[in-house]
């Protein structure tokens, strides 16, 4: 596996600490990191870091990433439908907790997402994701390092 040409970030809900890890990685290895959000983002002044502000609207940032990402790019997103779309296009995808999305596991993740949405629409309280913690940060940093080293598992 080769290093990603670009790293696309679904930045609206991406934890600040994950963005900071990506900023350091961009400058360390010279990979382009592009943050896409429907709000103005302040990013460090670096030739390797860009931000794209898209119009407000449901899945506008996701659509921009799906349209712009190319095979071999890495996409950082917690949005499972976006991950499914970019993986099908030949991109790599991980979520901010460091979980790798693959052709093998994405269908299962979509099915679980749809199942949970059905439960919620029927009034079942499913709870939300656990708080983002130190182990999530470390898992993300480790997975990113594997990609940048060209040995993603």
Estimate the mean pLDDT confidence.
87
Query: Strand order of the main beta sheet, please?
Result: 3-2-1-4-5-6
Tell me the β content: 15-25%
Give the distance, in angstroms, between the N- and C-terminal Cα atoms.
10 Å
| Unreliably modeled segments | none
Q: Total number of helical segments?
A: 5
Give helix % range: 40-55%
What is the makeup of the main sheet?
6 strands, mixed
Order of helices and strands: EHEEHEHEEHH
Structural class: alpha/beta
Radius of gyration: 15 Å
Q: What shape does the CA trace take?
A: globular
Number of strands: 6
How would you describe the overall organization of this protein?
The protein has helices at residues 16-29, 60-68, 80-88, 106-121, 134-148; strands at residues 6-10, 32-37, 49-53, 74-76, 92-94, 100-101. The protein is of the alpha/beta class. Helix 3 (80-88) runs antiparallel to helix 4 (106-121).
Short description:
With 153 residues, the chain is α/β, with parallel strands linked by helices.
Short descriptors:
153 residues; alpha/beta; six-stranded mixed sheet; 6 strands
Task: Record the SSE blueprint.
Elements lengths: L5 E5 L5 H14 L2 E6 L11 E5 L6 H9 L5 E3 L3 H9 L3 E3 L5 E2 L4 H16 L12 H15 L5
Parallel strand pairs: 1-2, 1-4, 2-3, 4-5
Antiparallel strand pairs: 5-6
